[in-house]
Amino acid sequence: MNTAELIAQLVADNDLHSRWLNTLSMMENTGARKIAAAEDKVRVDLLMLKHAAEEARHAYYLKKQILKLDEAACPTYEPAYLLAPVESHAYLNRLDVQVCRYLKKAMKLSGTELKYAAYLLVTYAIEVRADELYPIYQDALNAAGSRVQVKSIIVEEEGHLAEMLRQMETYFGDWQVHADRAVAIEKDLFAEWMNNVSKTVQPESMAA
User: Where are the domains of the chain?
Assistant: First the structure.
């Protein structure tokens, strides 16, 4: 089952759709917290603050969309209200760890420099993914005639991606090499995550 088929099946079931929205909200919130954790105590630029604020707003927006499906659904980010909760919580953490490991080896970075470089690469990889995933989701919403919408997130994520490109071009001399590596790491983690999400839709696959 490809990503579009899986999301279409999630959208078709209100319970699964609510948990899908809640899972995306949790991951956006995790991203906001990770950006904040990467901030230097004094050397924080406007773009970094903007990105943290927008990720937090996306988390709020997605959470609020759940109300269009069921006002009582998914009150928290507890496991029962998420899809593939263990893997969903681990996804960004694993991406961060693997990118940091790569940067330590490739650029010999440590401390605040490592945190900032990892922030750039991890955020870039996530924006590349968001630029692909949210339009697929919006297409599924349109096809189902759903009241849920993510068009505003799509517009902002496109802006994020352009901003991250500019920041990486400034920070990294050979930014494309590092960006490609981060994207490759994320691609593997995303495939594993979606495979676990698909087991929620097709639980019989777990026994296969």
Answer: 3-202
